[in-house]
Fold this protein.
Amino acid sequence: MKSIIEQFRILNDVDLKLRTLRKDLERLPKELAVKEEEPKLLVDQIERRKAEVSKLQEQIEEKDEELKVGGAAMKRYSSQMSVLRTPKEFESVRRSIDAQKRVNQQIEAQTLELMQLVENLQKEMGEIQTRLDQLNAALAAERKVVEAQVAEWKAEESKLAQQRAGMTKDLPAKELGVYDRIVISRGDAISRVTGSVCSACYMGLPPQVHNMAILAKELVLCPSCGRILTVE
Ligand SMILES: [Zn+2]
């Protein structure tokens, strides 16, 4: 049984490598997927600003229409000026002209304000787009690195899996069943006894268990952590 336990110890090394590899294979694409979300947020930010700009542009068009109406009113008043008869009429039209002038100036000021808002938004969109381009370039490079790394790890994984299959086919089925259960639940299935202590869980072993582990006539498990005990 001693040599079988030694084979389990070697098998355990392979299994630990496989476990780490499989964890990495799961982790790396997930990390990349999280990073891939960032450009989507920037695209959203640009889209929201685009929608705002088109709303503002509609408002600017409305202001242009108002200004056209205001301009037409001014023309009407000036033509009235040339046919006025009394000073009272003259005064009334003059007041209307002043009032309309103020209205037109107000519309122009509002238009300028709206145009300024559009300009600010467009500047922001340009900055976000620059960030987005940089991010996409960095991500494309990272994607390549991740793909290469995943391919390398997958090749390593299948090599180890093959190695594992070769090692397990000669091991006794009952003991292999015990070992497999421990590997699945604990990861590390083997624990060395140092002194009379299990090196995995630091539990002091009862003398009988310690002796059985030394004799190694069968698989001896740590009463505390359940791992297979080996003694050098
Ligand atoms: Zn233990």
